[in-house]
Write a structure and sequence with these properties.
- By secondary structure, this protein is mostly helical.
- The chain is built from 16 helices and no strands.
- The chain has a single domain, classed as Tetracycline Repressor, domain 2 (Orthogonal Bundle), CATH 1.10.357.
């Protein structure tokens, strides 16, 4: 007796074939410039380039060497882009488990791991070369140090294994304004340290707010982030410690005469507002909504203060 497929079986095979074809087409689509651009996480590059600019401007005191500024911004941006691309490479397995990152180029199969790694390495070589030959050796060394801390210590090790990952990641994340500062002045340790401490303290509460928002996503992917391991209440306490300490550290730029009263007022008011917003988190009924508001405030806080640093930089003699 001849065996014939039922209508349902035929439809199922047809649907499966169509699904496979569509998947193959998605994988075979050639990556575009836009896809490579997304790999560098442009939002991170923009914000950190502003931090680099602020450090450069403070060290220059409005006596701007525009060629040096161009090399500094470009070199730092390329090094940071290299780090974010290689971050994509190293995190590809965990990104595939998170709804927020599953459609990135590597987890989705659009790009191969080898091509992404090569892209990241090329960006890093270009960035370090620009800093080394276009700025100062100190700025170049700081670029290398920041890259190693971010890729080797944070991404490859602590991010996957320890609740201290955010703290460790802040060591590399605080480098951009210091690179900008040291591209101009390699002798003023106080200014460089204040800028470093400022951005270092800003990062953990900023990222923990995101961690609270995406807690389930991070837990599913296996990231041992503080909200996942210790809980939301413990995270709120940790955020308070950093933000409270950030307020006096942020005004040190005024105390030591790098910026003026406009920045001082802005840093004090915004810092106290952030402290208040963190305090409201302990009574928040909707913790996800509160975390989202805190995350957005942290971005605005940093952007405004970096701009105020540039606007209110004290003029230095030529």
């Amino acid at each position: 007796m001849d065996k014939q497929l039922s209508f349902d079986e035929t439809a199922a095979i047809s649907h499966q074939s169509e699904h496979t074809t569509n998947s193959d087409d998605a994988v075979k689509r050639r990556a575009t410039i836009k896809d490579y651009f997304r790999l560098i996480k442009p939002g991170i590059i923009y914000s950190n380039s502003l931090a680099t600019l602020a450090g450069f401007w403070i060290a220059s005191g409005w006596n701007i060497n525009w060629t040096l500024l161009l090399f500094t911004i470009l070199g730092t941006a390329f090094v940071m882009a290299s780090g974010t691309v290689i971050n994509n490479y190293l995190d590809r397995d965990m990104d595939a488990k998170m709804e927020r990152t599953a459609k990135r180029a590597l987890p989705s199969g659009l790009m191969t791991p080898g091509s992404v790694m090569a892209f990241g390495v090329i960006l890093g070589i270009i960035g370090i070369a620009i800093l080394a030959f276009g700025t100062t050796h100190v700025a170049a060394l700081l670029g290398v140090l920041g890259f190693v801390l971010y890729v080797g210590l944070y991404t490859a090790w602590f991010k996957r294994t320890s609740v201290w990952s955010t703290f460790v990641g802040a060591f590399s994340g605080a480098m951009p304004p210091v690179i900008g500062f040291c591209a101009v002045d390699t002798t003023d340790a106080i200014g460089a340290l204040i800028l470093y401490a400022f951005l270092f303290l800003w990062q953990p509460p900023h990222f923990w707010a995101l961690g609270i928002r995406r807690r389930e996503d991070y837990a599913a992917a296996g990231f041992p982030l503080l909200p996942v391991v210790k809980g939301i209440h413990a995270t709120k306490l940790a955020m308070m410690r950093y933000v409270v300490l950030l307020v006096p550290v942020s005004i040190l730029l005024s105390v030591y005469g790098y910026v003026g009263k406009i920045y001082l007022i802005g840093a004090t008011v915004l810092g106290l507002l952030w402290v208040y917003q963190c305090l409201t988190g302990f009574k928040a009924k909707d913790e996800i909504k509160w975390a989202k508001g805190n995350f957005i405030f942290s971005i605005n806080y940093l952007t405004i203060l970096l701009l105020l640093m540039i606007i209110d930089t004290v003029h230095k003699g030529s």
